[in-house]
């Protein structure tokens, strides 16, 4: 049990070696990485975490924000004796990874960020507008319905977050692989902006939508494996 967060995050662990922590996206859990856990556990200690309030991890009383999720990751690593890890984050998981690395750079050996965004406007309007409409509807009923309250909180993450200062990304010296799909919900120019803002990054665009790690996992795993072996 963590003294600072008040919760213990649920996780699945497989394999031995350097820790490779998998961070899922909004509204999901660690099972999103079903095709990565087995693949990478041959060479790494793979740990798929359920973020606070997602999957089997409790919500707790702390703020439901990307910054708090990054603090939860810090506490998780401390609790499990992990001094440094490779982070693989998808969508909000990528946002958590970037936020964590900016505050605790020495704890990150390498990063793979897939479908991440620095701020809400990095998402294509076609996807962002329905999210915002859903958020405002859920917010209206949040006081009367626990389900609506939970939906408002989840959708609020995508409407109000993240807030990552792109100028700070120049501080991140560790190798970073930036991944996105050809039909990603993140604007292509935004993904390329993230890539160009990182001093030691490479960019890989894979055939598919926002969920390439799950739907086009062979290509995704191949790109990640090549990056990790460099």
Describe the overall structure.
This protein is α/β, with parallel strands linked by helices and 230 residues long. It folds into two domains: 11-119 and 165-229, Alpha/Beta hydrolase fold, catalytic domain (Rossmann fold, 3-Layer(aba) Sandwich); 120-161, no CATH class. Helices cover 40% and strands 17% of the residues. It is built from eight helices and seven strands; from the N terminus they run E-E-H-E-H-E-H-E-H-H-E-H-E-H-H. The protein has helices at residues 34-40, 66-79, 92-103, 125-141, 146-160, 188-197, 212-215, 217-229; strands at 11-14, 19-23, 45-49, 85-90, 108-114, 176-181, 201-206. The chain has a seven-stranded mixed β-sheet with strand order 1-3-2-4-5-6-7, with helices on both faces. Strand 6 (176-181), helix 6 and strand 7 (201-206) form a beta-alpha-beta unit. Helix 4 (125-141) packs antiparallel against helix 5 (146-160). The longest helix is centred in the middle third of the chain and has 17 residues, at 125-141. The mean pLDDT is 96.
Keywords:
single chain, 230 residues, alpha/beta, Rossmann fold, 2 domains, seven-stranded mixed β-sheet, 8 helices, globular
Layout of secondary structure:
Layout: E1 11-14, E2 19-23, H1 34-40, E3 45-49, H2 66-79, E4 85-90, H3 92-103, E5 108-114, H4 125-141, H5 146-160, E6 176-181, H6 188-197, E7 201-206, H7 212-215, H8 217-229
Helix pairs in contact: 1-8, 2-3, 4-5
